[in-house]
């Protein structure tokens, strides 16, 4: 401990106390956890895993562009043709945002859908889990319907996800500044 | 090279923070030991809140029926804990004064004094709280040293009787209510030595008043 204090003294931090540092770290973690709480609350309110998504491609132009932020909400009512929905294909992590092209009821009484991006020339059947016989998507595959969007606000998220080291750099910078501030 | 702290004279929260930090260092200089029990309780509650937030996020992955229920449960727990922390901070500490919220620094001292002659060591344990307040649009900084532990030992209560008693049954051991102009010059430079010497003097007066009367009786 004395060696640590000496080293800190050489760096001009002679009044550094480990217990104060631990308390500050707990306070930073608590502040960050509030962001998690807001995200969890948004999930519960919208009844969807991803209440906010960022458009990564131009397949829905001119309605949505790459970098747009979309707000998603699940609904109990059946989805209609023309609704723009977010859905996931089994085995693929990234959700897709496309418009419902057609829908019909199966013999088992389930509603199934075929989707297509506005800027695509063909429907999404090629994107589905074709190998396992998926020709349509069902309500359980749909995370929710788009009810609002913010243009281009998600470009920063795309940039960070394309360069993951920058993510750690930004978060690390924020943590260091908060740690050494007196607030 | 001596570094002088400088604040904006128009920012009362900055002035109060500067004076509060100097108060803490003065109290430590006077050999008082800080007791961070309350802070550690807050931090323990905050750690539980952090774990609830993480659990709520993890269980929400996939958004299955079971995961949803756990996510709702942990999010509700986090919200309750957040409310508890806010209530503790606002009402527990905010109960001290009516119009403004002073910061309370909880401290405890264990002061050893040697008796003359038979070289016997006696331990006088005085538990103090320090409360500071600098209302908005005011330049008067109030520092109060008071005792609030309600220790039952008869000799402790007997010693406290010579001090002024407040409505909440705490005893004011010492206080001052002075203009901040006493410790800051016109450029906002803080005269730390002057301030800390005044605080130490106040503490020593409180200790002396607490201890000396008993020593005089035993001589």
From TrEMBL, chain A:
It comes from the Eukaryota. Its EC number is 3.4.21.89. SUPFAM superfamilies: LexA/Signal peptidase. The keyword NAD does not apply. Signal peptide: none annotated. Keywords: Hydrolase, Membrane, Protease, Transmembrane, Transmembrane helix. Its main location: endoplasmic reticulum. The chain crosses the membrane at residues 20-39, 165-182. Pfam families: Peptidase_S24. It is found in: Endoplasmic reticulum membrane. GO terms for cellular component: signal peptidase complex. GO terms for molecular function: serine-type endopeptidase activity; signal peptidase activity. Residues 49-114 form the Peptidase S24/S26A/S26B/S26C domain. PANTHER family: SIGNAL PEPTIDASE COMPLEX CATALYTIC SUBUNIT SEC11 (PTHR10806). Catalytic component of the signal peptidase complex (SPC) which catalyzes the cleavage of N-terminal signal sequences from nascent proteins as they are translocated into the lumen of the endoplasmic reticulum. Specifically cleaves N-terminal signal peptides that contain a hydrophobic alpha-helix (h-region) shorter than 18-20 amino acids. NCBIfam families: sigpep_I_arch. This is Signal peptidase complex catalytic subunit SEC11. It comes from Anaeramoeba flamelloides.
From TrEMBL, chain B:
It is found in: Endoplasmic reticulum membrane. Its main location: endoplasmic reticulum. The keyword Electron transport does not apply. It is a multi-pass membrane protein. InterPro entries: Spc2/SPCS2 (IPR009582). Pfam families: SPC25 (PF06703). PANTHER family: MICROSOMAL SIGNAL PEPTIDASE 25 KDA SUBUNIT, SIGNAL PEPTIDASE COMPLEX SUBUNIT 2. Belongs to the SPCS2 family. Component of the signal peptidase complex (SPC) which catalyzes the cleavage of N-terminal signal sequences from nascent proteins as they are translocated into the lumen of the endoplasmic reticulum. Enhances the enzymatic activity of SPC and facilitates the interactions between different components of the translocation site. This is Signal peptidase complex subunit 2.
